[in-house]
Amino acid sequence: YDDRDGQIWMDGKLVPWRDANVHILTHALHYASAVFEGERCYNGTIFKGREHSERLIRSGALLDMPLPYTADEIDAAKALVLEANGMRDAYVRVVAWRGAGEDMGVASARNPLRMAVAAWEWGAYYGDAKTSGAKLDIAKWRRPSPDTIPCKAKAAGLYMICTMSKHAAAAKGCSDAMMLDYRGYVAEATGANIFFVKDGEVHTPLPDCFLDGITRQTVIGLLHEKGIRVHERHIKPEELEGFEQCWLTGTAAEVTPVGQIGEDFRFEVGALTRDIAETYEKLVRS
Ligand code: PMP
């Protein structure tokens, strides 16, 4: 994927896709000193682009990495990349990291803070499951507690357990894994938040130790507009038995129905799931 045409924004200027490289002694590669964003551009406009830029800045601050760019500058970099690549519908990845420098150990303050923006076409994150319903494994790894790690940051280091969980899920023929939190409550999937439906009301885990996704917040707003009650609360895995529908939300995932979790829990791709998926689709393109 590194050998192709296109332009990537790096540290303030556009560079050819093939030349967007970093040194092997990049601090982030060794110690995960990196934060990132995943965004989608629809019809030439990034959905909630400003919120993503602001979250990137907050993630950096949480990791003691004060980014040398304002939200306006990050927004401008994203716009430049989309324009330079002639893209109106794309996935946009912004990443900021500690580069190579004098600090070869764990400390990194003397190394430069760097940033890059790339965009590419990325269709349905879960492929056909977008319509038929995804099957989720139940992950062995749990979301860590807020006093173990800055769990509200979209930080590279937090994705190690997500990657391992997703690999384990794929080996079982699943689209993704549902992760529990450190207490054993239902948390989220490896790159998306989770919702359940029961008796016409919606239940979703309280995001007290994982990302309160921008899509999650958008979907809760849509549910409120439709007059549907949303319970943000701690959900025990055994409660899955009583839920009728389930879906995932995320920038890449958009709204994806879930048909099955583990071997025991099955859900219908029901009317509310379809309605929310369609309403979200309309909103991002409006
Ligand atoms: N949780 C995790 C672990 C994620 O990677 C993502 C995707 N950024 C989400 C939730 C959903 O966040 P958003 O809706 O802001 O994309």
UniProtKB/TrEMBL annotation:
Its cofactor is pyridoxal 5'-phosphate. Keywords: Amino-acid biosynthesis, Aminotransferase, Branched-chain amino acid biosynthesis, Pyridoxal phosphate, Transferase. It comes from the Bacteria. Pathway: Amino-acid biosynthesis; L-isoleucine biosynthesis; L-isoleucine from 2-oxobutanoate: step 4/4; Amino-acid biosynthesis; L-valine biosynthesis; L-valine from pyruvate: step 4/4; Amino-acid biosynthesis; L-leucine biosynthesis; L-leucine from 3-methyl-2-oxobutanoate: step 4/4. GO terms for molecular function: L-isoleucine-2-oxoglutarate transaminase activity; L-leucine-2-oxoglutarate transaminase activity; L-valine-2-oxoglutarate transaminase activity. It catalyses: L-valine + 2-oxoglutarate = 3-methyl-2-oxobutanoate + L-glutamate; L-isoleucine + 2-oxoglutarate = (S)-3-methyl-2-oxopentanoate + L-glutamate; L-leucine + 2-oxoglutarate = 4-methyl-2-oxopentanoate + L-glutamate. Belongs to the class-IV pyridoxal-phosphate-dependent aminotransferase family. Acts on leucine, isoleucine and valine. This is Branched-chain-amino-acid aminotransferase.
